[in-house]
Amino acid sequence: xxxxxxxxxxxxxxxxxxxxxxxxxxxxxxxxxxxxxxxxxxxxxxxxxxxxxxxxxxxxxxxxxxxxxxxxxxxxxxxxxxxxxxxxxxxxxxxxxxxxxxxxxxxxxxxxxxxxxxxxxxxxxxxxxxxxxxxxxxxxxxxxxxxxxxxxxxxxxxxxxxxxxxxxxxxxxxxxxxxxxxxxxxxxxxxxxxxxxxxxxxxxxxxxxxxxxxxxxxxxxxxxxxxxxxxxxxxxxxxxxxxxxxxxxxxxxxxxxxxxxxxxxxxxxxxxxxxxxxxxxxxxxxxxxxxxxxxxxxxxxxxxxxxxxxxxxxxxxxxxxxxxxxxxxxxxxxxxxxxxxxxxxxxxxxxxxxxxxxxxxxxxxxxxxxxxxxxxxxxxxxxxxxxxxxxxxxxxxxxxxxxxxxxxxxxxxxxxxxxxxxxxxxxxxxxxxxxxxxxxxxxxxxxxxxxxxxxxxxxxxxxxxxxxxxxxxxxxxxxxxxxxxxxxxxxxxxxxxxxxxxxxxxxxxxxxxxxxxxxxxxxxxxxxxxxxxxxxxxxxxxxxxxxxxxxxxxxxxxxxxxxxxxxxxxxxxxxxxxxxxxxxxxxxxxxxxxxxxxxxxxxxxxxxxxxxxxxxxxxxxxxxxxxxxxxxxxxxxxxxxxxxxxxxxxxxxxxxxxxxxxxxxxxxxxxxxxxxxxxxxxxxxxxxxxxxxxxxxxxxxxxxxxxxxxxxxxxxxxxxxxxxxxxxxxxxxxxxxxxxxxxxxxx
Amino acid sequence: xxxxxxxxxxxxxxxxxxxxxxxxxxxxxxxxxxxxxxxxxxxxxxxxxxxxxxxxxxxxxxxxxxxxxxxxxxxxxxxxxxxxxxxxxxxxxxxxxxxxxxxxxxxxxxxxxxxxxxxxxxxxxxxxxxxxxxxxxxxxxxxxxxxxxxxxxxxxxxxxxxxxxxxxxxxxxxxxxxxxxxxxxxxxxxxxxxxxxxxxxxxxxxxxxxxxxxxxxxxxxxxxxxxxxxxxxxxxxxxxxxxxxxxxxxxxxxxxxxxxxxxxxxxxxxxxxxxxxxxxxxxxxx
Amino acid sequence: xxxxxxxxxxxxxxxxxxxxxxxxxxxxxxxxxxxxxxxxxxxxxxxxxxxxxxxxxxxxxxxxxxxxxxxxxxxxxxxxxxxxxxxxxxxxxxxxxxxxxxxxxxxxxxxxxxxxxxxxxxxxxxxxxxxxxxxxxxxxxxxxxxxxxxxxxxxxxxxxx
Lengths: 747, 286, 161
What we know:
The complex is a heterotrimer.
Chain A: H1 18-23, E1 38-44, E2 50-56, H2 58-62, E3 66-71, E4 82-84, E5 89-91, H3 92-99, E6 104-105, E7 111-117, H4 120-127, E8 131-136, H5 143-146, E9 161-162, E10 165-166, E11 173-181, H6 184-189, E12 193-201, E13 213-218, E14 224-228, H7 233-244, E15 251-255, H8 271-281, E16 285-288, H9 291-297, E17 304-312, E18 318-330, H10 337-343, E19 352-361, H11 375-393, H12 397-403, H13 423-432, H14 434-437, E20 445-454, E21 461-467, E22 473-477, H15 485-497, E23 504-508, H16 525-552, E24 560-562, E25 565-568, E26 571-574, H17 575-579, E27 590-595, E28 603-613, E29 620-630, H18 637-656, E30 687-692, H19 714-726, E31 732-733, H20 737-745
Parallel strand pairs in A: 1-16, 9-11, 12-31, 14-15, 18-19, 22-23, 29-30
Antiparallel strand pairs in A: 1-7, 2-6, 2-8, 3-7, 4-5, 9-10, 11-19, 12-17, 13-14, 13-16, 17-18, 20-28, 21-22, 21-27, 24-25, 25-26, 28-29
Helix pairs in contact in A: 10-11, 11-19, 12-13, 15-16, 18-19
Chain B: E1 5-7, H1 12-19, E2 25-28, H2 34-39, E3 47-50, E4 60-63, E5 67-71, H3 76-80, H4 83-88, H5 90-96, H6 102-105, H7 110-116, H8 123-129, E6 133-138, E7 141-146, H9 147-150, E8 151-153, E9 156-157, E10 164-170, E11 177-184, E12 195-204, E13 207-216, E14 223-224, H10 226-230, H11 239-252, H12 263-285
Parallel strand pairs in B: 1-3, 2-3
Antiparallel strand pairs in B: 4-5, 5-10, 6-7, 6-10, 8-9, 11-12, 12-13, 13-14
Helix pairs in contact in B: 11-12
Chain C: E1 5-11, E2 14-20, H1 26-33, E3 52-55, E4 58-61, E5 74-76, H2 89-96, H3 106-119, H4 125-131, H5 143-159
Parallel strand pairs in C: 1-5
Antiparallel strand pairs in C: 1-2, 3-4, 3-5
């Protein structure tokens, strides 16, 4: 097989927005300034669960400098309908209830009111002057507790969707689903070894460094303009329109630069409040969250309770598996347990599988996506049980995975049959790596491996390419750029056009200026928007052929195009030469494309972790770490490595220290970046990477999304390493020093 | 953040007169605790008195006989950057490098660490081990108190109305003297001690003549574990003596369970850290 | 009487003045009063380092400095790193090494790393990691940031006569 030669794809150019971002010129949401700007603040609930008896805003309104106060009472009457912003249908009342609480507060940090004032300090002081009378209610904080029949109920109207049927009676379980493949009961009867274990994982936060922000102007013409840092400008437009019950077309969202998201900057929190405050004051209103607001008032990823049971024959063939996944949705349904169920056994070809998933509301912030949402929790359970099986059977942990690895044609318990995937190739890369082959010596040290899967998504993307007379092009897209996607998308256009990537000028524009484009999430931008860019570039080529045909007095079909030049009957012209003549051959050339690709390719990732555990303190030090991932095709290898390294380190943080440390009455006790311990540079070694390329047949260059799968294996790999270092099997996240110490004590 | 006024006095007397009669006045040294506390409404403040322009609060001087004078507002970077400190009090230079990260050390002071009076203050157990004295100034004049008496409860100390900490005085190290502070944190930087142990030893002719042990994060105040130090006096430095001191430290601790650790874990860490700190100090003597 | 304070300072080598409330942090003054929004707010309590600036030759988290304290001081921000159109070696190295993804922490890292290299031209990896532990990055896992600082150190060394 010959390798395709590319000019641009696979190279490592400097990003197009690089100069702006290293000079401080790039404008993020909080940097937005405008004449007449007012500053907002949000009053949040001090209780985890309480009835709102009364809200008195008089003192706040009377405070000098205050211009307006809003509460849920300022929303227009709520139509009873379901809304869907790309993450599943949700009752509008839930979306709106999370923006400003109505009737009850459901978690500590739940937004209750918004204030606009002439300065942020005044707004914050005034928010404290709003008098809210609460009637505290008992709270429930974990899925197993919330599932008890006598648990405090969050939503009186919530009825369990029990295996597709609406159940009777109030409950905190919003959904129970089951996936069945084969017959797991029968399967277990045929096994030699069965291991069943219980796990729990703490709530963790995406931890982006930029707090949420939004500025809104309700203009005198009735249109609303919003500037914010978001993963999806169209989501902000559509969600804000729903919450405010106005037409989508009346809202224009300008996405500012965004300082990290990882899934957490998909929901709207501040935008509708800023818009309401702007309507009341007639002035633009900017609201910035504090870090405490971010922890307490935005969506972390679910904590979970998981049971996994896997059976194998003595030669290491996995025969049957069962999983019970109960995820905490937080205050409103939507715990990402569905993706957990899709991913829990995805790396393996197991003929008999039963998966039960429960979506459970609890008195914690309403959860949001976090990098492969739901998959990391599930893989922590599966991958440590597989490790135990390997140990019991005396098989190398990579070997047992390879013997059972999912491949093209393997049926997943939730239905889909895998197309071409790279699970085997990733595991072979682990086995062949210098890291895995090298000995790990010294006391209290151990090595662990794990594998993980994320299915990735497609979803709509739009792209326009305008040809300039100097032979460069301007590429217009709607995907907000969190990590260099302007460049990874522009590179694909450049490859198709046959021009240098520096000659493509990408812009991320507002919702009035580009076709609908779904969120920057699901590892979809380089895949989906990249595909839109390829097709738009193809449209440009088609039109340029027409122009060449006109010049050379032939028909477009006879013009050959490739590598940036056009040829026909002895004539030839470069892209640049032809671009100079668009004026005389028919006017401007604009390529357009909108895609909703079906050929999304899932990505497998593995991790190798070497650790040392201090037996006297329980502290784990990561000595060496390698991330291995199938990128399909790495468009910009440095960015692929960057995703792998970043995801790995988030996984390391999740595994070792990060957690929402909750008091019994539902207060997050560590809502600062001091006490919510994300890894610092001093906590880590270099993160080695091995990019595997098993091309995705559903993309012109073979791209699979690489943003997410890399976070899935690290906690399990660390748990397996800790077992070899300290002799304890950790089944609770985080595996913090006190937790490891307790496990050592009870050995 | 609530409104406050700001004043930057040039003398101790001016500072005292600003503080006197203003219970809502707060001294600003590095600001790394104070500003966070005002912002999060954990402390009220109507007047910030910036101590950094007062010469006595900025003094850092070493005299081989009298010891070290460390002004209350001297930032950590000056402490570990000082040649005399590094050679006479290497443990102090080290602890100055533990407080916050690099950018915090550009502002934070050890005097501030003490006045903030958190049980977890990293510098305080070491100051106790070093036998440091606090020099206070107030409307009634000056007074000197031992560091172990300074903190009275979490966030509280014995500074009276109008009183401020001017400087710390640390005795000159005697021959055979060494001190060490160790803390346990889950990260490797930017973290609050789950527990900490500051120790000092004076070893002469192979025998411990004097020892002091103090603990962080295991009591309402930085804890002077007198018995742990006394357990060492007259003993030969080594595993047996250090084990006894470690057990005395464990017994002295009265921690609580919170987000940083459980009672049992913290008591255990007290013993581990005391032993390890003693081993390190003893190595330094030899 | 609540009155604002007139502060005279120098920012990136240029004299500057602003009128601020005593409660406004240096970070707020830079961003809201001087329109220098390159310095970012991530936590407002000194734990993320996104607001790191240089103050009289030392790095500080500007959220924990009052604007009034800048009186008479020399302040250095990310906007002062490049010389005209020429990027600082650290800025170039960050771009060439893909040491930023979202870029929100980048100004703080650049200011902190510049101070390190001016003080210690050849820091070890461990030293770089310790120095930068006051700066959180959630995107990169730090690997490429450390490499960029190492590369800049090499290039700055070679450029010295």
